[in-house]
């Protein structure tokens, strides 16, 4: 059995015809017929029934098709990944949540990618989307926020732990507080990130645990929108403490109890990108420790 034979078999399944499959594949009809016959002989099964010049998959043929689709998908994924690692075309498909991106991307674009000789394609999204993209092979690795294990099928290297804080303008009545409980913020107009953002999920879950209904003024995907609206005293927000350094008009108030988020660089298990991922993780950890 070869991958080409499986590809020819899959084409016949889609076309219900050897001749049409050969035309689409741009190869000779005997080559396609021989591939199917070879598979039937190798495994001792009949893959197709011939009815009125059409090929109908048998039960065994359907099972072969299901397995072939999975195997060919993995082979295609391997080919894409290895091409990305080749000297000719090093393109790393990297998933980054917006808030985390503000921390890691300046570092990586500054030196990290040049250090590893990589070109980069950034995919921005929330944690759920990025995990799905990873498992589907649409991206090679992703920075993911989490508090628990990321789950089966993924390898991960912890990069840093970030503090979640309440942020207000310097002129806000709460600005001089040393710490604050979410219960005290239930009536404040809140500017939150989208519901699908990991931080927002945690904030809303904590409000629910406290049996409080938050006064949400706006949901947004933009870090700058939260920063600007809070700085203008329109509402109160929540973000990682490091994001306040670039906005002198904002004050970060630690939450009580404290709320922290782990950020890990994750990739699929047994992925050929593993070596690059581990080097990238090590580089990021070393840089953040020096900061």
Word description of this protein:
- The chain is an alpha/beta fold.
- Among the domains are: 72 residues, Arc Repressor Mutant, subunit A (Orthogonal Bundle), CATH 1.10.10.10; 102 residues, D-Maltodextrin-Binding Protein, domain 2.
- Helices cover 44% and strands 26% of the residues.
- The chain is built from 9 helices and 10 strands.
- An 8-stranded mixed β-sheet has the order 4-3-5-10-6-9-7-8, sandwiched between helices.
- The chain is elongated and about 80 Å long.
Give the helices and strands, then pairings.
Layout: H1 3-15, H2 18-25, H3 29-43, E1 48-51, E2 54-57, H4 59-85, E3 91-96, H5 98-115, E4 119-124, H6 127-136, E5 141-146, E6 154-169, E7 189-193, H7 198-209, E8 215-220, H8 223-231, E9 236-240, E10 250-268, H9 274-290
Brief account:
The protein is α/β, with parallel strands linked by helices and 291 residues long.
Distance between the termini: 54 Å
The coarse overall form would be: elongated
Q: List low-confidence stretches.
A: none
Total number of beta strands: 10
Q: How large is the count of helical segments?
A: 9
Using only CA atoms, what is the Rg?
26 Å
Give the structural class.
alpha/beta
Strand content is 25-35%
CATH class of the domain at 161-262: Alpha Beta
Spatial strand arrangement across the major sheet:
4-3-5-10-6-9-7-8
The CATH architecture category of the domain at 161-262 equals 3-Layer(aba) Sandwich
| Major sheet description | 8 strands, mixed
- Helix percent reads 40-55%
Mean of all residue-level pLDDT scores: 85
Q: Spell out the helices and strands N to C.
A: HHHEEHEHEHEEEHEHEEH
Using the coordinates shown, work out and report the CATH topology of the domain at 161-262.
D-Maltodextrin-Binding Protein, domain 2
